[in-house]
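lol ok so funny story. i was supposed to be doing the assay writeup but got distracted and ended up predicting the structure for this chain instead. priorities right. anyway since i did it might as well share w the group, maybe its usefull for someone
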Amino acid sequence: MVTVLSVGGSIVAPDNPDAEFLTAFAALVRAWLAEDNARKLILVVGGGGPARSYQGAYRNIVGEAADEQADWIGIMATRLNAQLLKAIFADICPSDVVYDPTKVDVFTGRVLVAAGWKPGFSTDNDAVLLAERFSAKTVINLSNIAKVYTDDPRKNPEAKPIDEIGWKEFRAIVGDEWVPGKNVPFDPVASMHAQKAGLTVICAAGRDIDNLRAILDGKPFTGTTIR
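and the output, tada:
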């Protein structure tokens, strides 16, 4: 049984790696896997603070930045974060970090770590492709927000949290185009693919370890379900 977690770079490395969070996260993952030998976990990690910092420097230097180059910078940041996660789970993650989700069919061990692939979308889309490849029905998307809102709550005080939403309505919120560094609950390109594949995505706050445990156990949780 394979479970896919899309782990936002903003919770792994908001500026620098968050050792406190990663310690608690690793303990949860190990405990959950130890309870059932059939469980396997795919961790797809984003770029976080390093991606934003380097993309920002690039844009400041060249002025009119090329999206493809900004994407590649972000992808390299995801690979740094992914290598950190692989090292943390080294004893149960013998496979190399996955860069191309279309070229992996099996993995040994209990954990597989994946990073960014190529320009045009975020690691959310890689998570969707891996979920399809390993017949997972749900992608758990962990970020720094507890729920999806009807609008950006930082800009619109009337924005309301959503417990459950359909793909059509969700895609009306996030749009259809990907821009490097775009701050949305789930990548628009990934959303399109998830809808076509009939996947369910759960968006939740990644730092809430108890809530993540509830999601993994199929118990009531705080978050937004998109299906």
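The mean pLDDT is 94. Residues 67-88 form the longest helix (22 residues).
back to the writeup now i swear
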